[in-house]
């Protein structure tokens, strides 16, 4: 069973599963969204955890590979009065023209994407030159002891449950495609907020 089927089966219960982490992650989601400007694409919107933090004037396009998750997010966006459109779409194959967004954001997505390199290439492609890419992601810690004692056991559980890989080095992958403006590390690098730009010209 792949990640789509696992997330589809969770549906609304995903909110319950992640509830204990919300007090840690939601302030970071809010901070990530504060960097959003212009025509925006959110990759892997899930059940819409980021949606309450968007300015209603932002022209938001949001994608997720799991139809059940998209339905939940669409409902939340309507309740919030957001100017948003939703699509069932893989991060590795975005069906948008090249250079069509001012901002692309992902929030705890690259730990689940089957092919991170391909997804990063697609983000680069659809972002306008000078546009901003924002990543709030689970990453491998800078503390090896923490990786062995906490992340590796957690990786086994989350991998079985939702195909989640908490040991990816998305921060290194970002640097291969974008100019990093700032990178903030939280909880010894278990979570990182990266704000980057696509080079102009």
Automatic annotation (TrEMBL):
GO MF annotations, alphabetized: S-adenosylmethionine-dependent methyltransferase activity
Domain of life: Archaea
Organism (species): Thermococcus piezophilus
Keywords: Methyltransferase, S-adenosyl-L-methionine, Transferase, Ubiquinone
Protein name: Ubiquinone biosynthesis protein
PROSITE patterns per record: UBIE_2
Gene Ontology biological-process entries: methylation
InterPro entries: Methyltransf_11 (IPR013216), SAM-dependent_MTases_sf (IPR029063), Thiol_S-MT (IPR052356), UbiE/COQ5_MeTrFase_CS (IPR023576)
PANTHER family listed in its UniProt record: METHYLTRANSFERASE LIKE 7A, METHYLTRANSFERASE LIKE 7B
The UniProt record lists the keyword Transferase: yes
CDD domains named among the record's database cross-references: AdoMet_MTases
Limits of the Methyltransferase type domain: 41-135
Pfam families according to UniProt: Methyltransf_11 (PF08241)
